[in-house]
Amino acid sequence: MKIKANDLKDTERIGKIISRCLEKGTVICLDGDLGVGKTALTQFIAKDFGVKEYITSPTFNIIKEYEGRLPFYHMDVYRVDSEDDMYDLGYDEYIYSEGVTIIEWSHKIKDILPDERISIEIQRLDDTSRIMIIEGKGKTYDKLAEELKK
Ligand SMILES: Nc1ncnc2c1ncn2[C@@H]1O[C@H](COP(=O)(O)OP(=O)(O)OP(=O)(O)O)[C@@H](O)[C@H]1O
Ligand SMILES: [Mg+2]
Fold first, then answer.
1. Which ligand is nearest to the CA of 132?
2. pLDDT value at position 57?
3. Where are the domains of the chain?
4. Residue among 9, 11, 33, 39 whose CB has most ligand 1 atoms within 8 A, to mutate
5. Atom of ligand 1 nearest to the CA of 43
6. Which of 33, 36, 80, 131 to mutate to test the pocket of ligand 1 (most atoms within 8 A of CB)?
7. Cα of 124 to ligand 1 centre, how many Å?
8. pTM for the full predicted model
9. Predicted confidence (pLDDT) per residue in 2-47, tens digit
10. Which one of the ligands is nearest to 121 CA?
11. CATH number of 2-149: 3.40.50.720, 3.10.310.10, 3.40.830.10, 3.40.50.300?
């Protein structure tokens, strides 16, 4: 499905809806050009999810751990060269955990993404508006799609 965010406030509203659908083990994949709003959306999701810390981009660390209503893992795989590197970082333990995982630049590790996931591609229209193309598989995605239609 496609959703339009006219401004940052809209992105915040979408983040809130996503946050409320998250369950143990949910994986969210975020893709889109440099600076399009992947981290901004993650920050809104995290804020509503109960993460008190301010989230910054984990580009150099690849993975950062936070605590919200469940453990909250934020990955930025932009600088990852091989999927093996992800396993070395404990990738499997994160995605098959009791927490939720958000992965920026997920297409860089597309071969090792779980089947059940929510994928969001953000496209820039102008300074403040964005199109979000949301796809996925699994019951969390189904629930989210239902909520976003409202
Ligand atoms: N509707 C919107 N949704 C998201 N971000 C927006 C929107 N309107 C303006 N912005 C701005 O766009 C910028 C997005 O930057 P952000 O760091 O989130 O991008 P990113 O996709 O994570 O970049 P990178 O590829 O470097 O990780 C922010 O400065 C944000 O305030
Ligand atoms: Mg980012």
1. 1
2. 87
3. 2-149
4. 39
5. 18
6. 36
7. 9
8. 0.98
9. 999 999 999 999 999 999 999 999 999 999 999 999 999 999 999 9
10. 1
11. 3.40.50.300
Give the residue, by CA position, lying nearest to ligand 1 atom 2: 8
Question: Which residues approach ligand 1 with their CB closer than 6 A?
Answer: 5, 7-8, 11, 32, 34-40, 57, 104, 128, 130
The two structure tokens encoding residue 75: 């990955």
Pairing label, strands 130-136, 2-5: antiparallel
